Each structure stands twice: as C-alpha cells, then as structure tokens.
Amino acid sequence: MNRFLAWFCSAIAACLALLAVFMVPASAEVSGGRFIDLPGVKLWVIDTGGGGEPIILLHPRTGHSAIWEKQIAGFAAAGFRVIAPDKPGAGKSMMLPEVKPFAYTETLDALVDRLKIERFILLGVAEGGYFAFDYAAWKPDKVRKLVLGATGLGVQVDEEGSAFRRNSAIPGFSKLPADVRELSPTYRGFNPEGVRRWLEIEHQAAQIDVPRHLLRTPNTVEKLATLKMPVLVVAGDVDLTTPSGAIRLWAKHLPQHEFKLITEAGHAVMWEQPEAFNAAVLDFIQR
Q1: What is the share, in percent, of the chain residues with pLDDT greater than 90?
Q2: In whole angstroms, what is the distance from residue 46 CA to residue 34 CA?
C-alpha cells in the first residue's frame, strides 16, 4: 500500500508539472520586461532570466512579445531562459529618429552580445521566421537548434513553389480582416475571448510610419541548404496564409529537419494550439 501511495503521489506530481508547462491560461498576460539601448533602437525585451539555456522568440508581423504569453511561462517552467523582444517599430520597441531601415538580424546579434549569450535556441513564427532563418544562416555557430513555424520565410522559391502559390491563391484574401486571415474558423467559433486578446495584441503590433526591417541577405533555397543545425518546421493544418504544402516545398531544401503538422490550427499556430505547439518545441529542443 505504501508503495502504491508513493507511486500515486509521483504520478500526480508529474501531471502537475506537465500542466505547469503546457496549460497556460488564455487570459495570461506577459509581465516584466525592460528597454535595452542598441544601435538605432530602444529595444523592449521580455527576459525570464535564470541559468537555463536561452531560447529567443521572434514574433510575427501581427504581434509583439505579448503574442508569446502562452509560451513564455511554459518554456520557463521547463527550465529555459526565455527571451522575447519586440521587433523595432513593433510593440514598445522604438527606432531612433532619422534612422534608415536596417537588418533586424543585426539588432538581434547586438542583443545577444549585450546579454552575453554565446549559444541559444532560436524560434521564429510567420515573419519572425524570416529573421530567424536570416540570422541562423549568418551566425550558425550561435544557434544550437532552430524552430520555424507557420512561415514562408520570404523565400525566393523555385518554379514548383511559384506554381503552388498561384494555384492555391484565394481571391481577395489579402483584404480580409487580420483575424479571419490568421485564426482558424474553429478557433474563432469556440474562443471569442482568445480572439479579442489576439486582436488587442495585433492592434499594438505595428507603429505608424515606421519602415519595415530588411533581411541581411535575401532568403533563398540556396541559403536554406547552408543550414547545418537541427531544424524543426511547424505548420498548422488549416493555415490559409501559409499553407502546409507551401511550407513543405521550402523545407525540402533543408539538409535536415523534422516536420510537425498541428491539427485545427491556423496561421497563429502557437496561439491557437499552445499545448500542442509547446509540446512539439520542447520535445525537439530538450533532445
């Protein structure tokens, strides 16, 4: 009996630990953060601190660091130091007056140096994936593992990829509201409060009259072939913005990668299905 009680208590403790990692409430909001002065920008950064391995999260264009509120607590609970900056010109980060557009990857590298981080895990979703790929190709020795989610990478694709885009295009899609383009019908139907919070973050994403940031070098299939670190590619199975088929077409050019398709998830895959997304990422980066 004593052995059974010990086993039962251990099982309960394990379940509670998993819940702490994955079951982040939909209403959770990111707290903390600070400004870091870097060349050309006053960067707002969420940093959980601690001695765990760093993981840097790069948000989509329709978001800022708060879009990761369902990941920050989960990854931190798993022992990682989670760092989530607002891209310059998004959220709270501010570009300095009269500064010309520059590569976001250079700001990221300046941040890494300022925080004295030698090696880390890099995760980018949607437009954040563009910059995560650009950085990993530029500074491969600093990126232990790379996660790219729901992103076309801005890759200059081959004819097969171009044909897919033409054939899968939805007339008038770009004129639809952001939540319709990026959140799945299932999520919008069942989670009105989650949609409200997502829209709140989306409305704070881009500042007025701030130029878009540049890639350091164009993202191409040839550039994909240079990546040597392990890569996890994540797609949502009802993503209308960047369909899983389009993602598979660029992912095939990677020397090595794992592919994870998350069901009932649109373009905002980490927001709609945080438990599945977090589980896939943690399984990959903890190996």
Answers
A1: 79
A2: 7
Burial of 149 (C-beta count, 10 Å sphere; 0-12/13-18/19+): buried
Write the pLDDT tens digit of every residue in 96-116.
Answer: 988 888 999 999 999 999 999
Backbone angles phi, psi at 38, to 5 degrees: -130, 165
Amino acid at 4: F
Is pLDDT above 50 for 22?
A: no
Identify the three-state secondary structure at position 130: helix
Domain enclosing residue 156, as ranges: 2-285
State the DSSP string of 71-113: HHHHHHHTT-EEEEEPPTTBTT-EEPTTPPP-BHHHHHHHHHH
Mean pLDDT of 244-257: 96
Global confidence as pTM: 0.88
User: pLDDT-based confidence at 14, cuts 50/70/90?
Assistant: very low
Comparing 20-29, 125-134, 202-211, the range with the smallest average pLDDT is 20-29
Which amino acid belongs to residue 152? G
Query: CATH number, domain at 147?
Result: 3.40.50.1820
The number of folded domains in the chain is 1
Specify whether the CB–CB gap between 182 and 241 falls below 8 A. Answer: yes
Which tokens belong to 104?
């976001």
Task: Count the neighbouring beta carbons within 10 Å of the beta carbon of residue 188.
Answer: 16
**Cβ within 8 Å of residue 152, ≥6 positions away:** 242, 246, 247, 250
Q: Is the distance from CB of 44 to CB of 33 less than 8 angstroms?
A: yes
- The total of other beta-carbon atoms located within 10 Å of residue 142's CB is 18
